[in-house]
What we know:
alpha/beta; 9 helices; binds NADPH dihydro-nicotinamide-adenine-dinucleotide phosphate
Amino acid sequence: MNFAGKTAVVTxxxxxxxxxxxxxxxxxxxxxxxxxxxxxxxxxxxxAACEALGAKALAVxxxxxxxxxxxxxxxxxxxxxxxxxxxxxxxxxTRDGLLMMMKEDDFDAVIDANLKGTFLCMKAAARQxxxxxxxxxxxxxxxxxxxGNAGQVNYAASxxxxxxxxxxxxxxxAGRNITVNAVAPGFIGTDMTAAMPEAAKTAVxxxxxxxxxxxxxxxxxxxxxxxxxxxxYITGQVLAVDGGMAM
Length: 247
Ligand code: NDP
C-alpha cells in the first residue's frame, strides 16, 4: 500500500490491533499520530517501530471519551504533520459480565470508550477532512456487534452502535470525498483476548470455520485496504475479518 504524504491518526495505537495498524500504515509511508490511554512505554515502542520503518510518528496520551483530549490529539496531528487523511478508531475496552450482574459503571465505561470515543474522534477529525475534501475513516467494530455475545451486552451495544454511526456518517460525508467504513474482527490474539477465561476461548475457537484465531496483522491489512486509494468507491460497509465466524 502506498500512503506516502498521508497522515493517519490511530487511537489505541500502543498495543494489539492498533499497533499493527500503525505499523502497516507506516510501512506504506504514512505519518502516524497514535494515542494511548496510559501505557506510555508501549506507545513509545510503537513510535520507535514506525520510525524504524522510515515513517514519522507521534504518540499522544488521550482518553478518547474526553472531548478536550480528543481535540488536543487532532490538533497535535495537524500541527505536526499538517493534515489528517486517515482516522482509525481502534481504542476499545471490555468489562464483561452477565446482564443481571453487570454494574452500571461497567456499562457506561464501555459505551464511553468504544462508542462515545468513536463519535468524538470522528467529529474532531471530520472538520479537518471536510476542509481538505479528502478523508478515510475506519472504525473498529466486532463480530460481537453483528451477532451479540452472552456476557457482553455493553460491548455488543457499543460495537453495534459503531456500525450505525459508520453508516450514518458515510451518508453525511459521501459527497465530500470522505469514506467511512468499519472492520469487524472476530477472535484476534491480543491482550484483550488473552484476558478471556480458557473455557471461553475454547468455545470461541470451536465457532471459527477456519479453526484458528486471527493475528493483529490480518486486521491491519483490512484496515489499510479501506484506508487506501483502492477503496475509494467503498463507503458505509462493514468488513468482517473473522475466519468466517459471522457469515
Ligand atoms: P487491547 O486491549 O490489546 O488494546 C487496547 C488499546 O486501546 C490500547 O492501545 C489502549 O491504550 C487503548 N485504549 C483503551 N481505552 C482507551 C481510551 N479510553 N482512550 C484511548 N485509548 C484507549 O485491544 P485490542 O487490540 O484487542 O482491540 C483493539 C480494538 O479492536 C478494540 O476496539 C476492540 O474492541 C476491537 N476488537 C478486538 C478483537 C480481538 O479479538 N482482539 C475482536 C473484535 C474487535 P493503553 O495501551 O494505554 O492501555
